Amino acid sequence: MTLFEVRVSVPVAASPADVYAVVSDLPRSGEWSSECRGGTWIHGTPATVGAVFRGVNHRTADVVEWAPVVRGEWTTEAEVVVAEPGRRFSWSMRNSKGHKQDSVWTYEIEPGVLTHHFRMGEPTEGIEGITADMDDADRRRFFSEWGKKLEGDMAATLDRVKAVIEEVN
Predict the structure, then answer these.
(1) How far apart are CA 125 and CA 56, in angstroms?
(2) For helices 16-23 and 136-168, angle between their N-to-C axes, nearest 10 degrees
(3) Which helix (H) or strand (E) holds 16?
(4) CA–CA separation, 18 vs 21, rounded Å?
(5) CA–CA–CA angle 120, 50, 17 (5° rounding)
(6) How far is CA 104 from the centre of its chain?
(7) How far apart are CA 75 and CA 55, in angstroms?
(8) 118 φ, ψ to 5°?
(9) Which domains does the chain show, CATH number per domain?
(10) Is the dihedral of CA 32, 36, 40, 46 positive or negative?
(11) From CA 142, how far away is CA 120, in angstroms rounded?
(12) Looking at residue 106, what DSSP letter applies?
C-alpha cells in the first residue's frame, strides 16, 4: 500500500557534489522548505546514515483547513537512511517512540537535475491521528488534497533550493 508518492524535479546549474552539500545540510532547510524552519542534529554524525535530525516546523491555518492537522509550530525527528554523496540523500520520519516510519523524503541528484521524492506507505502516527475520526469520503478527500499540497510544497522547495545553490555557484 502506498498512501503518497510524489516526485518533482528541477534543472540545476551546479555539480552533483555542490547540490548534495546543500540538500544534506538539514539545519539549512528553513531556507527553502514550506514547513520546516530548520533544526539541529541530535544524534550521530550529521548527514550520515543513522544520524537523527530534530526539525522545527510551522504550518498556517489555511492548509487543508477543514482537516485536523497540526497548526502553528511543532517538532519532528527524522533519521538519515541513505547518504550517498553526489547521488542521493534520504531520511525517514520517526514516530513518538523514535522508530522509523514508512515515510521517506529523498533528494536524488543527477548531473543538471535535482529531484525531490516523497513516499509514504503505511500511514504514519500523524496521519493515523488526522484521519482517525474521518469517514471514507473524508479520508479520500484528505488524501487527495494533502497529495496536492505535498506536490506544491515540494515544487516550491525545489525552486528555493535551486536559487540557493545557483546563487553560490
Answers:
(1) 18
(2) 120
(3) helix 16-23
(4) 5
(5) 85
(6) 7
(7) 5
(8) -130, 135
(9) 4-168 (3.30.530.20)
(10) negative
(11) 14
(12) E
What's the CA gap between 92 and 70, in Å, rounded? 19
What is the sign, positive or negative, of the torsion defined by CA atoms of 43, 37, 118, 135? positive
pLDDT, one tens digit for every residue, the chain (169 residues): 799 999 999 999 999 999 999 999 999 999 999 999 999 999 999 999 999 999 999 998 888 889 888 888 999 999 999 999 999 999 999 999 999 999 999 999 999 999 999 999 999 999 999 999 999 999 999 999 999 999 999 999 999 999 999 987 6
What is the tens place of the pLDDT at every residue in 126-139?
Answer: 999 999 999 999 99
Amino acid at 23: V
Is the pTM higher than 0.85? The answer reads: yes
**Dihedrals phi, psi of 156, to nearest 5 degrees:** -65, -40
What's the chain's length in residues? Answer: 169
User: In degrees, to the nearest 5, what angle opens at C-alpha 38 toward C-alphas 37 and 40?
Assistant: 150
